[in-house]
Every structure is written in structure tokens, then in C-alpha cells.
Design goal:
Elements: H1 9-18, H2 31-40, H3 48-59, H4 76-96, H5 107-117, H6 126-132, H7 136-150, H8 155-158, H9 166-179, H10 189-199, H11 215-229, H12 234-246, H13 249-261, H14 266-297, H15 302-328
The structure holds fe (ii) ion (2 copies).
One fe (ii) ion (FE2) binds near residues 179, 245, 278, 279 and 282.
């Protein structure tokens, strides 16, 4: 994928730095523009410049960018700037996200708390809108919005595997093995999503649509990388994945219905149909064996587990609100040039 266009001074500084060769770099204080961007920002999660810069810095650890020196991945200048933005994200999320209290760190109690937290609410839902009302253009838009995560589906949570032990490690591996197709490349969920995109007439190449993805969607993906890439956030990764799996089966049935309503075939809806079945199983494994067992083994991680789950739901709501308010107003939820 190519480096995207900047959206402000910080993303510009990141892009300019990454466009040079590491050995030619004679020291660049990327942390200074990062601090200025955070000071300027009134809403870090909705800040186009900040979220794009963070997305680019994380993407160095996934597929990288065409023409960008691989040595930037672990370069201290980039890591320092990333740390500035990460701390701001963490503080912002901690002040916004409500975390359930009075949960005991026992396996079944944690699973029960997560199922309660993720129970579907009565409010507006993107999935219900898609099932009943979305236009063909809005269906495509949904895929474009989701492509920024779904084309690397499962990768951010996989970072946590080496940081876990015992039952929670085995549970995460079991879930991820399914996400990666159980050894069949064609059944990897990222590949099934690519089929859905192609079926809907979209380009399924990794990173094609990043230019059009708004900050709030990037923030939802960045938070997974934030949790996944730090060992200290292993509890939050477990909680995030549990919430993700627990809120997947039902919405995916509705997404599939929306695509069937527009006459798409089974090949195009395979991704959604697969998740109706798979995530009804994954939510049990993630709730009890991943998150529940982790809390039992390391009770001091209980708050992080619940925080990770609540953060997943919080960002899902923000993205959902963004999509629905755009669609209700008859405009695109994507960024236009
Ligand atoms: Fe999946
Ligand atoms: Fe899953």
C-alpha cells in the first residue's frame, strides 16, 4: 500500500520522515509535532491528523508501505512520537469509557459480566439499518469503512498470544486459528471479506480506501493495535476480542440480509454467514476461556479486561453513530477529497 496523503501537521511530519531513508536521517524530533498535535486537538478520537498519523505508525508493524524503509518500524523517533499519541488516547478513553465495577475475577463471573455488557440495546443499529434500508451505495460504503480492519482481520489481537499462558493462550489460539481459516488460505476471514468486497464491485487490495476512511473508523482500528502491541494491555486485548465476538453473530446475520435484499449471491454473503456460525462459538470461548481464565489467573487484569470490552463497544457506537447520522442525512460517511 502507498503512504496516504497527510491530514495535518503531524501526519505530514510522519509521512515526510518515513519518505526518507533511516540511514540518511540525522535525528528528527517527531515527538514535538506529536505533542503539539495533542495539545491542539479538542477530540483525539475524531482528530483526522492524529488518527491518521497513529494509523501510519502502527501500519509499519503490519504490511508497511511501498517505498518506506522497513527500519522505521522500530526507530526510536517514531516510537517516541507514537508513545505521545498513545498516552493521549489512553487518557481520553479512560475518561470516557464506563467500566463495570463489582465484578469478581472468577472465570464464570467475568464471562457473565461480559455477556451483560455486550447485550444488544434498543437504540439505532447499523446492522438493522443495513438489513432493512441501506441502499446499494451504502452497502458498498459499509464494506469500505470496514475494510481498514477486516482486510487484516484478527491480526491486532494475535499480538497478545505470546503474552498469555495456559487456558487463555489456548483459547486465543483456537479463535485465531478459525479467523485464519484453519490452514486453508481461501477460508481466512480477511480473504472471505475480500471476496465480499469484490462481489460488491470494490477493490479488495489492502489499503486501497484508507484515504476515504474518517478518523473515528481509524480510531477503532488503532485502539486494537494499541492494546495488541503492548504487553501491559494484554487484559484489554482479551476483553476487546471478547466484546467483538459477542457482538458479531447477530449483526452479521443482518448484514447478510441486507446484501441478500439487494440480490447478492452466497459467495458475496459468505463472510457474513460464516460469522453467524463461527462467532456464536467464538463468543463462548472468548468470554469464558480467554477473558474469564485470564482474570482468574491474573486478577489484577480484571479492570483492563472490562475496559478493553467497554472500549470496543464505545468505539463501535461512535462509528455506528457516524455512519447512521451520515446516511440519515443522505450524505456519505466517507471522507471526500
Ligand atoms: Fe472473523
Ligand atoms: Fe470470530
Amino acid at each position: 500500500m502507498k503512504l496516504p496523503s497527510p491530514r495535518g501537521p503531524l501526519s505530514l511530519a510522519v509521512i515526510e520522515l518515513l519518505s526518507s531513508q533511516v540511514r540518511e536521517n540525522v535525528g528528527c524530533d517527531l515527538a514535538a509535532p506529536a505533542r503539539s498535535a495533542i495539545e491542539r486537538s479538542t477530540d483525539v478520537l475524531a482528530d483526522e491528523d492524529v488518527q491518521l498519523a497513529l494509523y501510519i505508525m502502527y501500519e509499519l508493524f503490519y504490511r508497511g508501505f511501498e517505498g518506506v524503509d522497513d527500519d522505521w518500524e522500530w526507530h526510536p523517533d517514531v516510537l517516541l512520537a507514537r508513545g505521545v499519541v498513545e498516552r493521549a488516547m489512553e487518557e481520553d478513553l479512560a475518561s470516557r469509557v464506563a467500566v463495570p465495577s463489582d465484578v469478581s475475577p472468577e472465570r464464570s463471573a467475568v464471562a457473565a459480566a461480559l455477556f451483560t455488557l455486550t447485550a444488544p440495546g434498543p437504540g439505532p443499529s447499523v446492522a438493522r439499518y443495513v438489513a432493512r434500508r441501506a441502499t446499494l451505495e451504502q452497502l458498498r460504503e459499509l464494506l469500505v469503512q470496514r475494510s481498514v480492519y477486516q482486510l487484516k482481520e484478527a491480526d491486532p489481537h494475535t499480538w497478545a498470544i505470546p503474552r498469555l499462558v495456559g487456558r487463555s493462550k489456548a483459547a486465543l489460539v483456537e479463535i485465531q486459528a478459525d479467523e485464519y481459516g484453519g490452514g486453508d488460505a481461501g477460508r481466512m476471514h480477511c480473504e472471505l471479506f475480500a471476496r465480499t468486497m469484490r462481489g460488491a464491485g470494490l477493490d479488495a487490495d489492502y489499503g486501497t480506501y484508507v484515504e476515504q476512511i474518517p478518523a473515528v473508523t481509524l480510531a477503532a482500528v488503532n485502539v486494537m493495535s494499541l492494546f495488541g502491541m503492548h504487553r501491559r494491555w494484554r487484559g484489554a486485548t482479551a476483553g476487546h476480542l471478547a466484546a467483538f465476538e459477542m457482538t458479531s453473530s447477530l449483526p452479521n446475520r443482518l448484514y447478510g440480509d441486507g446484501f441478500r435484499r439487494h440480490g447478492f449471491d452466497q459467495d458475496t454473503t459468505w463472510y457474513f454467514d460464516e460469522h453467524v456460525e463461527a462467532d456464536a462459538v467464538h463468543e463462548q470461548i472468548a468470554g469464558r476461556d480467554l477473558a474469564g481464565s485470564l482474570a482468574q489467573l491474573e486478577p489484577e487484569l480484571l479492570h483492563d479486561i472490562l475496559f478493553g470490552a467497554a472500549t470496543c463497544l464505545y468505539l463501535d457506537d461512535l462509528v455506528g453513530h457516524h455512519l447512521l447520522s451520515a446516511w440519515e442525512a443522505g450524505v456519505s460517511s466517507l471522507r471526500t477529497a
